[in-house]
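Q: Here's a chain of 639 amino acids. Please give me its 3D structure as C-alpha cells.
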Amino acid sequence: MTDLEKKILDISRTHSDYNESLALNELKTLNEIDSDLISTLWTLKKRSEEIKHSGTANDRNSYLAYYLGITSKKPDGEFNLPNRRTYARSGFPDIDMDFDYERRHEIVEYLINKYGRENVGNIGTLQTLKTKAAVRKTIKVLDPTNSIRYDKEGKPIKSKTNENFALENEILKTLPNIMKRGDGTLVKSIEEACDEYPAFEQHMKAYPEVFRIAKTLEDSISGTSCHAGGVALSPIPLCRIAPLHITTDKGQLSEEGTAAKVLATQFPMADIERLGLIKFDILGISTITAISIACKLIKEEHGVNIDWNTLLLDDKKSLDLLKSGLVEGCFQLEQKQMKDCLKTIGMDSFNDLVVAIAMYRPGPKDFIPEFASKKHGKTTISYPHERLRKITSSTYSVLVYQEQIMRVFVELANLPETDGYEFMKGCAKKKPELIDKYKDKFFKGALKQNISEATIEHIWDILYKFSGYSFNMAHAVSYAFLSFKTVYLKAHYPTEFFAARLSVASIRRNMDEAEKYEQDAIENFGFEILPPNINESKINWTVIGDRKLRKPILVKGIGVKAAEEIVKHQPYHGKDILQSFASKVGKSVSSKVVAAMYDCGIWKDDIKKRKKEQIIGAFEQIKKDKIKVRGRPSMDMFA
C-alpha cells in the first residue's frame, strides 16, 4: 500500500462523512486510472500554497480532493459518489487548477522537473477562420472593387487608398462584435449571419462570389496557437506520441514583453485525450493575482491576515454589495446582463450566487425568471413528476446543474449517470445522432417506470433545452467562491481592492479595463485618484490613504522594464530633476518613454515651463554627454 493509499484510508477512519467504503470506492477508481495523478495534484497543492492556488472544477465535489487539501470546499451531500459528475465521464478525472497568472510558469516547471522535459508539453490549438475573417480574406484576394493596380512586371502598386478595405469595413459593420440570436445562442456561420442580419445578407447578395468563396473558407485552419491552460503529460517522450511544434503562448511573456515561444503538440485537446495522455488544465487567472496583491496590502495597512477557509459565506456587507449590482472588478460578475441576473434572482445567500453563475448562459438563462419567481413565492412550485422532487427541491423545481440532469436519467429512466453525461456532451456539440440515441434510451427506460409518454415528452423538452449549455455544480461553486472573495474584498477593503485590481490591469496593459475601474472607484465609491509622480509612483498603484490612490509609473507607452528602471533609481533630486533622471536611468528608458511620461503628466509638477520637444531634446543631450564622459580615457595613473 502506497503512502497516498494509507493517508486516504486514515482519513476515512477519522471523518464520518468519508467512510471506508467511500474511500475504497475512490481508490478503486484511482487504481483503474492512475493513482499518480492524484499524488501529483496533492504535491502540486502543497507546492502551490505560496503561489495562491484555487481548485476549480469537478474536484470541488470530491471528498478525496477535499480531505487531501487539494480543495477547500467540502462536497455537497446531495451529489455524493457515485452520483458526482467527476466519475461519470470516461477517462481521467477532469481536474482544473487555477493559479496566480504571474506565477503559473512555476507550476509548469514543477511538472517538467517531475516527469522530464521531453514528457511534458503545452497542448496546441488549431485556429480557424470565422465568419468575419473569412469575408475579409476573400475580399482581399478577389478584389471585388477592382482597386488593385499592377505595374508592367505584374506586381501590385501600393496605394494610399484601398477600396477593398473600405468595402470590408462597410460589410462587417453590419455585424455586431458578438453575433447572438435573441435567445442568446451564438451565430456561427455566414449563412446563419445572413438569416439573422438583413443588411449583411444584402451585401452578400450584391457580391455572390464573395459569399460563395467565404462560405467555403469558413472553419478552415488558418494557424496554430497554444491552449490557455492545457498541459499534456506522457510516460515516454511526447514526440513519440504526438507531433510537436514551436508556437506562442499569449499567457506567458518573454523577457521582451512579447508572447513567449513554447513547445506544444500539433494535436488539439480532444485528440490528446483520445491518445490516452493525461491533461492538466493549469490556468493563470488575473483575479487570483489581484486577490494576492489586495491581501498583501491589507496586511500592510491594517495588520489583518485574511483566512479564506474561515470566510463567512453569509456576510451581510458582501451580500448587500451583490444586491446593489456595483460589482465591477468582481470575478464573473461584470457583464451588465449578469448584474441584472443577480438582481432578478436576489442575492440572499451564497447559494444564490452559485445558481446565478450556473444559470447565466444560453439555454439555462431562459429559466432564470421562473427560478426567481418560484424563489420569491410568486409562482407555485410544482414538479412534472414526483420523482423530480428529490432532485430539484433545493432549486425550486428548476433544473440548474448538470448533476441534476444525470440524476434525472437515473431516477426516471433507471439509466447510469454516464448516459446523462454523454447526452449533455451530445447537446453541447450539436450531435443529433447522440441526442437521438439517448432520447430513445430515456423514453424506453422511463416507460418501464410507468411514467406516461406525455410526461416523458415534457421532461425531455426541458432536458434538451437546458443541457447544451448547462454548468456543473462543482464548477459553479468554485467560481462562486472566487467571486465571493472579490466581493468581500470590495465590500470590506475597497481601497486595497481597487489598488490591486487597477495594478493588475496596468501590468497586463489593459488600459480600457483600468479606466473602467478608475471610473467605478471615483463615481460609486468616492475615491480620489492622484496623478503619477516621478518620485512617489511605483510599478503598482499606491495606497495614499483611505479611498485615496496614486497612479503608477506603468502607464500607456511605458513598459514594465522601463518602469522598473525608473522606480529602481528613485528619488530624483536637484534643481534640474531631468538632469538627475537622465543621468541615473539606463538604456531601457528611451526618448519614447520620456514622451509617454510627459503625455501622462509625470513631468507636470517638476518641469513646468518646458515643452514636450524641449524635454525630449534635453534628455537625449544628457544621455549623449553621459556616453562621452564614459568613453573619455582615464587620467588616473592607478586606474
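Q: Can you summarize the key feature?
A: Confidence is low (pLDDT under 50) at residues 55-60, 77-87, 634-639.
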